[in-house]
Design goal:
zinc-finger; alpha+beta; zinc ion binding; 3-stranded antiparallel β-sheet; 130 residues; DNA binding
């Protein structure tokens, strides 16, 4: 595996999904499996109460430089400045909005949030560390 890192200047073409946060294991950052009361990490075996699950940003983008298209995923707190809050605080806001609107999928991002993310990123040029 090549461990050389470089910077890639590219423009965002599209946002690949509408789920921008996920429950993350605090040991290995893998996605947690949540049920109504407990969480479980299938990678490292970490378990706990669902109410104690921590959330992390995950933004999947299609980007283009002058020659190529790439699918890239940006993780973690580097996205805090773009969203204006931590992933955990955004999760609380999403849950509150979904509860008020009667949305049954507690992880669904409200359409207004999806549009805001698209407006913030699509057509903009960023430096990506790859």
């Amino acid at each position: 595996m090549n461990s050389v890192r470089r910077l890639l200047a590219a423009s965002v073409i599209s946002v690949q999904n509408s789920c921008f946060i996920y429950p993350a294991c605090q040991k290995c950052f893998s996605r947690l499996v949540l049920d109504s009361r407990r969480f479980n990490c299938l990678k490292c075996g970490c378990t706990g109460e669902a109410k104690d699950a921590r959330y992390r940003y995950r933004l999947s983008l299609k980007i283009a430089d002058t020659n190529d298209l790439f699918d890239i995923t940006v993780f973690g707190s580097c996205l805090d400045p773009f969203f204006g809050v931590t992933a955990e605080n955004l999760q609380r806001c999403i849950q509150d909005l979904n509860q008020l609107s009667g949305e049954t999928n507690i992880d669904a991002s409200p359409e207004v949030l999806v549009q805001a993310v698209e407006n913030c990123f699509i057509g903009k040029r960023f430096l990506f560390g790859v």
